[in-house]
Amino acid sequence: MNYKRFEDLPVWNTAIDLAVEIYALTDSIYFRRRSSLKDQIERAAVSVSNNIAEGFERGTNNELLAFLYISRGSAGEVRSMLCLLERIPALQSLNKETEVIKKRAESCSRQLKAWAQSLQDSKFQGERHVNQRTKRVDQAARERGEFLKELAEIRSKAATKGGK
């Protein structure tokens, strides 16, 4: 499926959910005297979705790849900080929440890795490299594929009728 807007990307939506969960976690009383920790984990969480969005809007696969890896790094940073929270005795009562959020961050990382791998395997260079000729060639290939599919359906129906 080709996505036209980053808001439609499943991984971007997972990243937004991650940030919302982080903000809900850091809104607790446990973070009132830990402003630098709160700030760092919030910024890392927001960085995941922002880098996906920025890379998507850049227009080339190379730039998108770079931002996906930055985003993946931020997801790792969130997980690392959640591991830290689990080891701080005064914050261990948050372990159930941190475990759930870590799974969301891991999901972001897996999705980003799979997307990056598919981009690396792709010959498509990105929207910025698409010109009118490329669009015409792609349109002709799509139309040919649709025609061949219709032809196969007609042949299939004819074979079914001929066999009766």
Summarize the structure.
This protein is an all-alpha fold and 164 residues long.
Under the CATH scheme, the architecture of the largest domain is Up-down Bundle
Strand content: under 5%
Please count the helical segments. 5
Based on CA atoms alone, the radius of gyration comes out at 23 Å
Q: Structural class of the secondary structure composition?
A: mainly alpha
The CATH C-level class name of the largest domain = Mainly Alpha
Count of strand segments: 0
| Principal-axes shape call | elongated
- Please outline the major beta sheet: none
CATH superfamily of the largest domain, please? Answer: 23S rRNA-intervening sequence
Q: What is the CATH topology assignment of the largest domain?
A: de novo design (two linked rop proteins)
The helix fraction, in percent, is: over 70%
**What is the residue-averaged pLDDT?**
89
For the record, the count of structural domains works out to 2
Q: What is the N-to-C succession of helices and strands? A: HHHHH
Low-confidence runs (pLDDT<50, min 5 residues)? none
Measure the end-to-end span.
39 Å
